[in-house]
Design brief:
The complex is a heterodimer of chains A (about 375) and B (about 325). Chain A has about 375 residues and is an all-alpha fold. Chain A is built from 15 helices and no strands. Chain A has 2 domains: about 90 residues, no CATH class; about 230 residues, Orthogonal Bundle (MetI-like fold), CATH 1.10.3720.10. The mean pLDDT of chain A is about 85. With about 325 residues, chain B is mainly α. The radius of gyration of chain B is 25 Å and the shape is flat. Classes of the chains: A mainly alpha (about 375), B mainly alpha (about 325). The interface between A and B is large, with 104 and 103 residues.
Amino acid sequence: MTTTTGKNPQPSREALQAIDQPLSKAALPRWAPWGVLVLSVVVALAVLLPGGTSAGAVAVLAALLHLVLTAAVSGAKEGSRKAKDRVVTALVTIAFLIAMVPLVSVVWTVVSRGAARFDAQFFTWSMQGVIGEGGGGLHAIWGTVVVTLLAALISVPIGLLTAVYLVEYGARSALARAITFLVDVMTGIPSIVAGLFVVALFALVVGPQMRIGLMGAIALSVLMIPTVVRSTEEMLKLVPNDLREAAYALGVPKWRTIVKVVLRTSVSGIATGVTLAVARVAGETAPLLLTLGLTVGTNFNPFEGRMATLPVFAYYQYTQPGVPAQAGVDRAWTAALVLIILVMALNLFARLISRLFAPKGSR
Amino acid sequence: MSTPTRAPERGPGGGGIATGTKRRGDGLFRGTATGAGVLILLVLAAVAVFLVYEALPALSPDAEVDGGSLTAYVGPLLFGTVLAAVIALVVATPVSVGIGLFISHFAPRRAAQGLGYLVDLLAAVPSIVYGIWGIVVLSQWMVPVYAWLTDNLGFIPLFAGPASASGRTILTAGLVLAVMILPIITALARDIFLQTPRLHEEAALALGATRWEMIKYSVIPYGRSGVVSAAMLGLGRALGETMAVALVLSVSNVVTFNLISSTNPSTIAANIALNFPEATGIDTNVLIASGLALFVITFLVNFAARWIVARSGAKA
């Protein structure tokens, strides 16, 4: 700009120096994070082993060393910005690994301890007349199945219809907004409060000390309905409006459009949501503890008498194991194992539905 | 794409379907759907009404509650509830945000979804299982940690000790709760981080930002309110969680900030679960009254969380 006299303007020395910098800066090799990790584990072991140690202490020290070493090495070679980036990468990875510790530990503990009684007797016997060793959880398994199915039977129609109202009819009316908001709030009702509510309801209507399967099912429904509403609502919103308009153009009444077109299109998503909701309530303990109590025998009738369910069975077998205590504790672990298998199977099943029947073009 | 017109039910200018033949099915279906929605409102109202009604006998001033008045009974429980939930929140929130960032921005693209499922699996473990695991495994892990804390950090009132020999302290209960709310906060945080506008991220990277700087200047500002509400939803869950605390904690109904001794405050939910099956008469009403207090608190927390979400433009 300023020096336009010469034919060949020479850039100033400063400008040349600025241009002459390499485009890429020095970088650590790709294996550097792993190398630092190995180094920190070795150092941690070397420091802690002489005094006798636990795996947890080594892991904590190695993680800290890894962070410090990464910061030091990268800071010296690559500069502070890159070093910060590497430290944050290490931090979030550590956060993920921290979350994996309880998952692995829970699964390992339950599987290894539950395996002791994971036998044919557990699945064919109830606790009728069983004192001490032996016995099984058949009554509890059936109780969980009956109560959960009944809860699904109550909450799926209500949840489905509410979602239909919110998406197809309500559309930004004050009522729809109130329902959406309160359903969101209802998602956070503590499960024990749902149990208390049902107990209070039946105490007023029927009389106190009432304990039947239906009460448990209603309590679970209170917890399940919001989940069903939310997931169904999301699915219905995904149905393209073109489909609805095409149906109207053919003269199809609105309710038939909803049933035959909208719900039909989103059925896989709805099934996924319902399965996840069932999985969520199948493991609930607190409301069932209050509303169902426990029995020793199999009871298929949710309208009369107490019922055993897996979570409550596990709870009482663990806290009041009887004599010999080990037999009760073993039964509790096996009940927990069966419950985990049931819930995880439902979860996997839900993912399978959504993956196999997902509409084309969506994630 | 089509314009966002809803069903042409009462379209202006006439010629809409509904203005033609009135179909009985339509009215019926609409009525049923609306009824289901209203039913939900009624259920929520009924929860409040029935709890209040059953709690009334305990709320009257001349009611006899063990330990004197109702407030003297519920006070320590309330304290324990909040303390355990706050511990859980303090532990779980940073870890969850870290995991959310890991899955959304750091993990290899191909593995990210699978890793997300792994974290979701944590939510699939029933609370009773966490409770027993907390007693048998986590408490044992924590015993040496608590001893170390008392020896080295005993001057902080939180760790004054003497350390519990069984490890079944309010801190252990809080850690179990943290594990339980981790997947909830993580799932929400992850979704919010993934919704960051692509252009913001790529603009930051194009200006030469490192990955962390890109996250600091584009992802975190975008997701901040969402993370706050996710944490509050987690808090609501931690306040109401029952069985894990009921099993893990060895209770003595005191108010203390000493997190690692063997005398611990109980929580409302755990207290109900432990005492309700055997309660009769006025005790039942007292327990229901404490449940009502829990309901009100969680309702307010969730209300606030949803309000934050709604105010920030419904991102979650």
